[in-house]
Amino acid sequence: MLTWFHRWWPANPPAVVDRWGSGYHNPVPELPDVDRFRANLAERAEGRTIQRVDVLDAGVLHGIAARTLDDALTGHRWRSPERHGKWLLAHTDGPTVLVHFGMTGDLRWSPADEPRDRFDRVVFVLDDGELRYRDMRKLQGLQLAPDAGAVEKAMAGLGPDALAVRRGDFDELLAGHRGAVKAVLVDQSILAGLGNLLADEILWHAKIHPQQLAHQLSPEQRHQLYDEMRGVLRASIRAGRIPDGPGWLTGLRDDPDARCPRCGTPLSRRRVGGRATIWCPDCQRAPR
Ligand SMILES: [Zn+2]
């Protein structure tokens, strides 16, 4: 399926979107998706013991061999998982598995007798069912952190989580960066969790132009941006993805004639910081 959107943004491979059916507009796992994976683990695996780890494709393992992963985890119980940005911190009563879902990662619980998918890469066999890490493109994957210090070290390069950051800290990180606000929002070392689609959605809700410089935002704009970021994230987590219904921008990304859901103005499109970006030229006025 070659649509206008794909010609406009050829880096987005149609096969990924079609095969995964996880939403045409939301092919890449973003914060709400990772939160869903966290919830899956908490609901179905927390408290359960890992019987063994089947590594079907070691290409998703980073810094650890398949056998070592199995040895390190077998016999341990899953504890309450956490999320930081787009990372899942899958704690056990021993080591922690750190998962980054890249472009096509997925974590789901399945009954043991359900046939495995050809893109299942690592399967944690439990006393009830299996937790399956599935990933078509294998751009990221799994690491093992032996203890809390190793978890901290692995997460050290990330900014605060976008859902957990406090208003004062958010103000400071915006004021401290001179780049376009869109580029600042998606920079994981500044703020962890926002991807391209979420950033556009949040800026549209906050009526802020993506190219406005972060450090030049007024206190009112920063206030609005923080409120809208939380609102968009909460609604997206509730929905399990970025909502694409009326009143949302995300569902319009592939429509070349799309108009602003708020004011009806044709949407503008351009690359900002190398990322395909859409906004309303009327609601989100260009910086002077
Ligand atoms: Zn508008």
Q: What would a concise description of this structure say?
A:
This protein is α+β, with helices and mostly antiparallel strands and 288 residues long. 31% of the residues lie in helices and 18% in strands. It is built from nine helices and ten strands.
Keywords:
2 domains; N-terminal domain of MutM-like DNA repair proteins; 4-stranded antiparallel beta sheet; 10 strands; binds zinc ion; alpha+beta; elongated; 288 residues; disordered N terminus
How do the strands line up in the largest sheet?
1-6-7-5
> What percent of residues are in strands?
15-25%
What is the ordering of alpha helices and beta strands?
HHHEHEEEEEEEHHHHHEE
Mean of residue pLDDT?
Answer: 89
State the shape: elongated
Bound molecules: zinc ion
Q: Cα-atom Rg, whole angstroms?
A: 20 Å
The quaternary structure here is: single chain
Provide the CATH topology of the largest domain. N-terminal domain of MutM-like DNA repair proteins
Number of helices: 9
Provide the low-confidence segments as ranges. 1-26
Account of the protein in words:
By secondary structure, the chain is an alpha+beta fold. The protein folds into two domains: 31-155, MutM-like, N-terminal (N-terminal domain of MutM-like DNA repair proteins); 160-279, Orthogonal Bundle (Helicase, Ruva Protein, domain 3). It has nine helices and ten strands. The strands form three sheets. The protein has a four-stranded antiparallel sheet. It has a four-stranded antiparallel sheet with strand order 2-3-4-8, sandwiched between helices. A two-stranded antiparallel sheet has the order 9-10. Strand 2 (82-84) and strand 3 form a beta hairpin. Helix 8 (196-206) packs across helix 9. The radius of gyration is 20 Å and the shape is elongated. Zinc ion is lined by residues 260, 262-263, 265, 280, 282-283.
